[in-house]
Amino acid sequence: MAHAGDNKAIKDNLYKELELQLDLAIQGISVDAEEINKLSSDHTNALLSADASSPLAFNFVDGKIKGSGFDTGFRHQDNSIYGLESEEGKPVIYKYGKNKSRVGEIEFRNKIRHPLLDLTTRDGVPFHTIASVREDGQVHVNYSQECVLKEKGEDCFFCNYSVRNATLKTPQQVGEVFSTLYEAGVGKHLNLTSGFLFERKELDYYLDVADEIQSRTGLKEFRATAVVGAPLDFSVIDKYKEAGYFSIRMNIEIWDKNIWNTICPGKRNHCGGWDNWVKALEYAVDVFGKGRVASNIVGGIEPKNSILEGIEYKASKGIIGSASTWRAVVGSVLEGHRSPETAWHFDLQQKIASLYKRYGFSFSDLHNVSPSAGLATTIYQIEQEDFDDNGVLTPWQYPTSLKGEPASVLYL
Ligand code: SF4
Q: Domain limits at 167?
């Protein structure tokens, strides 16, 4: 077992690696077609198969942070200070500048689709078009790629999510795919999300998915996070809980009320305003309990103090507040803007991790509200010294629940 002095060195190295991963996520990586052709065919195929909807996760071959938690999707960015080069067919990252330096060899993850995703639903749709499965057992479903706020011209300024006339996956398809993965012990926690549906029909949709899962698995409560907008009528929140959902996420996106009013016009106009959103979160803790309610802030649009004030307020009420790392995406109102520097984001995440500790959230809590509380979760884990003697962080895995056993018993 490593002693305290060793642990400090291990933690320092893990922080260095994590901050580098964050910098790569913010700056992106440039890749020349010529270099792609020099890679071995499996690396080339992995790179070419990635797109915005299925990012290619990677880690450093000599790194200590493997598996998911903070997902480092490989992001192409022309003219980045980082570039990918081939060394004997292996992908290696370089940093350019006055003195070009070798950062390290990387390996791509998640290249193999689980065989169960090659099955088809009762109505003939391939599973892999309905859901994806992460290495930690999280099943991710975007049930529609359309958000009605876009149609109304009221979409959130940082978002480019919506695709017009996107296919709506049926609740039966979603329930069938998750139940199959769950019963095979492959899928352990469902993250069910989308934009806003017409006439706020999300509730009906979530209830229908729950019906399908319950009738297929026999579970009264199942591990799933419903990602929804704040309702006007709070009794709706009770319905999600009664339907069997394990946790709920209502992303407020911005904490400063005035900035929120500008950046999130649709949420302002259709969800009862900022005060209603905060009250809905507090109500949800009464229904779901501490650590089973989450709300994200898009980190980098408003001042850091405001974000931290929001996260601390929520933590004091039992709500897990996270901050994602904003990058201005093409097609959003904020396209062309710049995110703050990497050091700004890293400092923010370190402060959030210490708030999680101060307010008594556990490592499981931070994952119970999928898709997890992001980068601060990994910092929290480093602070907990949850690594082996070689300094490799323990990869997170959702617990396996067995048919017929109530999840609440298994996951206390
Ligand atoms: S972030 Fe806003 S605009 Fe984007 S999908 Fe969600 S509600 Fe719609």
A: 115-410
